[in-house]
């Protein structure tokens, strides 16, 4: 299954997920995205910048954190990376807090599968 198909599957599995994106937080690039509606590139760039900044801050406090959840006024941003120091990240935008655990597990599976394939 391709990365694009995996992101589509994640978004369809998590009821309130409107966007699932795979990116590189070291470069700030969204490399693949699945979305229920079109998002502007500026929005995707902002989401990746937030992932990068929050993992950087998190690493200062605890070097092994692989999850950051941000509550925004109208959405939840879930950032998952495979392991500290790895620039690969899956970003999920959800509308419902109860979907965060499922989004997290689904993103972790994508990243673990990708790490095993290399």
Give a description of the structure.
This protein is an alpha+beta fold. It has three helices and five strands. Strands 2-1-5-4-3 form a five-stranded antiparallel sheet, sandwiched between helices. The mean pLDDT is 91.
List keywords for this structure.
five-stranded antiparallel beta sheet, 118 residues, 3 helices
Short structural description:
The protein has 118 residues and is α+β, with helices and mostly antiparallel strands. The protein has helices spanning 3-13, 41-61, 100-117; strands at 17-24, 29-35, 67-71, 76-81, 88-94.
Individual helix count: 3
Helix content: 40-55%
- SS class: alpha+beta
Radius of gyration: 13 Å
Spell out the helices and strands N to C. Answer: HEEHEEEH
Biggest sheet character: 5 strands, antiparallel
Question: What is the fold's blueprint, element by element?
Answer:
Blueprint: H1 3-13, E1 17-24, E2 29-35, H2 41-61, E3 67-71, E4 76-81, E5 88-94, H3 100-117
Antiparallel strand pairs: 1-2, 1-5, 3-4, 4-5
Helix pairs in contact: 1-3
């Amino acid at each position: 299954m391709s990365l694009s198909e995996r992101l589509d599957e994640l978004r369809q599995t998590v009821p309130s997920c409107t966007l699932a994106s795979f990116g590189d937080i070291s470069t700030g690039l969204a490399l693949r995205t699945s979305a229920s509606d079109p998002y502007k590139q500026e929005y995707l760039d902002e989401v990746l910048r937030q992932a990068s900044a929050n993992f950087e801050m998190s690493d200062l406090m605890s070097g092994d954190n692989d999850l950051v959840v941000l509550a925004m006024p109208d959405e939840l941003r879930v950032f998952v990376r495979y392991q500290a120091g790895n620039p690969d990240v899956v970003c999920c935008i959800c509308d419902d807090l109860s979907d965060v655990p499922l989004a997290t597990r689904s993103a972790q599976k994508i990243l673990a599968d990708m790490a095993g394939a290399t």
